[in-house]
Amino acid sequence: MERKEGEETIIAENGKIEATPQKDGSICGFDSLHHLLQASLSPQLFQEVSRILLGLNCGKKVEPIALPQPVKSLSSEHDFDLQAFSFSADRESLRGPRIVRVGLIQNSISLPTTAPFLDQRRAIFKKLTPIIDAAGSSGVNVLCLQEAWTMPFAFCTREKKWCEFAEPIDGESTQFLQEFARKYNMVIISPILERDVYHGETLWNTAVIIGNHGNIIGKHRKNHIPRVGDFNESTYYMEGNTGHPVFDTAYGKIAVNICYGRHHPLNWLAFGLNGAEIVFNPSATVGELSEPMWPIEARNAAIANSYFVGSINRVGTEVFPNPFTSGDGKPQHADFGHFYGSSHFSAPDSSCTPSLSRHKDGLLISDMDLNLCRQLKEKWGFRMTARYEVYADLLARYVKHDFKPQVISDPLLYKNA
């Protein structure tokens, strides 16, 4: 394996190279853990490891999809990772397949955070144009962008100047994407920093749902706001007020669980109870904070709620002009760490795709037969065997000030005391 100049090599006791993130965001020079394992193991071992790590879809591995050559050329010309896979479902007698092609885009910012804000936004538009074109030319029906895709992820700096990136629901970024929606007959999910001009210019972390005719179907505002490490985003926006909406589109029922909401199982549950078939999780999270959790939470949600999940994380290290600190004992710093990409799809049968690159822009495409959602509900019976009335009773009591946990102590536990 060729190693790039400046890369660190960590040698384990057995003499093998250990997987460790490098300064460029790769893992020992590999784009992803999947590629590292593929290069390091024999084909037979790799196949078995992949079965365990990625699961099986209807008894077989998730199959790659061949994409048109012009799309591959766009990937090469503009240097973004391009991967495509297919989830199947069992064939039914009374329903035909309900196959939808879905896409996720992850990207780094295009200009330094010190550049004029208008230039930064326009540069992101320019950067994403060929990637969106690649999605549309591939026949993607539903496309989701990353959290706050129009700007650097500045919400932890606590500087108010970044509020200038906020825009109304029908603002410049929506108008930009509406053209692609109409051109490619594609539903687009656009997570932005929203400026609510009807309510005192309140700011929200919002996903705008653009229909395949270029119309605005609706919006969802982020339900859970982090207060962990540098991610203390309540300087800019608070918990959303839109509930858990599911949007019935031309290509299925979709929902958006924005970033930190993925850590809350009841948040995932609520979208499922409202009938979601695909839930998108546009995020911005760094390696030191959350990477071991990243492959697990969305996959668990897909299994527990019998829907597909599309997980998106931005890439790169964003350096800000003024150092900041978060009161956690760490010295002041000018960045949050590396946004590790690794966007992927999870299916209700526990299978998932390999991840996109840990350090490059990327487009991940998946064909998914939505019939799999109902088939897994019927197989496992989670909806029928759940005890919602018991949970509802506990939650109703828990939110009251005089709640007492249901704890039964051993009467002999404190006898000697």
Automatic annotation (TrEMBL):
Domain of life: Eukaryota
GO terms classed as biological process: beta-alanine biosynthetic process via 3-ureidopropionate
MF GO annotations: beta-ureidopropionase activity
Protein's pathway: Amino-acid biosynthesis; beta-alanine biosynthesis
Occurrences of domain CN hydrolase (ranges): 100-370
EC code(s) of this entry: 3.5.1.6
Record's catalysed reaction(s): 3-(carbamoylamino)propanoate + H2O + 2 H(+) = beta-alanine + NH4(+) + CO2; 3-(carbamoylamino)-2-methylpropanoate + H2O + 2 H(+) = (R)-3-amino-2-methylpropanoate + NH4(+) + CO2
EC class (word): hydrolase
Keyword annotations: Hydrolase
Gene3D superfamilies noted in UniProt: Carbon-nitrogen hydrolase
Pfam families reported for this sequence: CN_hydrolase
Protein family (similarity comment): Belongs to the carbon-nitrogen hydrolase superfamily. BUP family.
Protein name: Beta-ureidopropionase
Gene source species: Nicotiana attenuata (Coyote tobacco)
